[in-house]
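As the work plan foresaw, the team has encoded backbone shapes as discrete tokens. One protein thus recorded appears below exactly as we store it.

:::
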Amino acid sequence: MTCRNERGTGLVIAILTIVALFALGSALAFLTRTDVNIAKHQTLHTEAIYVAEGGVEEALYRLSLRDPTNVTVNGSTINAAIRDDSIPYDPNWKARIFLTRPGAEPVAASGEDHTVTVQDAGTWLEYSDASDPNIALTIEHKWKDLDDDGLREDGEIVLYDVGQYPPENHTSGSPVEVITVPGKSAMAAREILVEAIRFPLNINARAALFCNEGVDVRGNVTVCGHDHDIDTPIFTMLPGCRAWELNSNRTRCTPTGCLVGVMTTGDIVDTRGTTDLAGEPAPIDTSSSNQFYTLAEFLGITQTELDEILAGADFRDVGVTDPQDGITYVDNAGLPDAKWNGGTGTGLLYVTGNLDVSGNIVYKGLIYIEGDFTITGTPWVLGAVIVKGVSSYAFSGGNPAILYSSEAIAYFIQQHLDYIRIGWKETSGL
């Protein structure tokens, strides 16, 4: 009788076991599906960062392009260079890159530049927006609200000067650019902020005209070692250039920041004639203790870094053509003298041999010559001239004017150097 009552027990146990296994299987399936969704979300989340990084690379590339650089994008020709701000820097300067075809970008507000991506249509990485400036890829000057009034004002732009400690300041150097980039992959969205600067230089200027050999400045020669404004009008001479002198705060020049007019490493300076020299603490310094700098030492960089800059020079030949806006590398050591017969230029002019100048020349930046520098014309240089020289007189004057300008040297050389990153972080902007 008892055995007959227990005959259904096995069936009940079997059914309960099946139910338990079904529940366990359902739970495992749910967990697996959840894990798959989590993995998919993590993949998209990671992809969104890589997409944003793609936007940073486009921004850095286009900031480094020479203006103008015309390219064909989706059937239209555009200037791919991002128009850089210039001294005096505008605290409200801003550039945006939109994810649309040329001509379809929204109208820019005052003080802003709007352009379109250089990606091919149909394969765009989503690191901007087609029309909304609030979520478009944006480039702007780093800013610190020094007076807490919420307004971007002069003197509040963060500048980067490798010669200062700390390098970020508000008085000298080039602006720190803030690149804000959204990145999207399907439903995932992330935003990163990158800080970038022009490749930094630590200029070691000693004089407006520095020669390793004797200097012939006879004739109608003007050399002024006072620090001049980058906007000094061309062909300004002494004493008129005194009105354009600066100190580090862009105010009236003081001895701090000014240099000797003409310097040698112990050789004589021939000043017969109508030579007009000025500088601090003296117009001329011929001390044998003066150290002559190589170009790399003058720029405050390594020789390897200089070699990389020269390898990507804008102009590289055994002669000098006009205009010379950029990094000019004239490699004529052991060859006939390079000739420059009038014209204009900005940046760095580096000559490994001799350079002969005639005609009217206007140059802003640095002229560095390993050989001799002979002048029969009227060059006007805002920046500095350095001549190593191979003869008794490394510099032979005609009617030149050389006005020292720390701004002109740094700005006009750095304008032709690439941007590098100095900071990265993810934000909560999306």
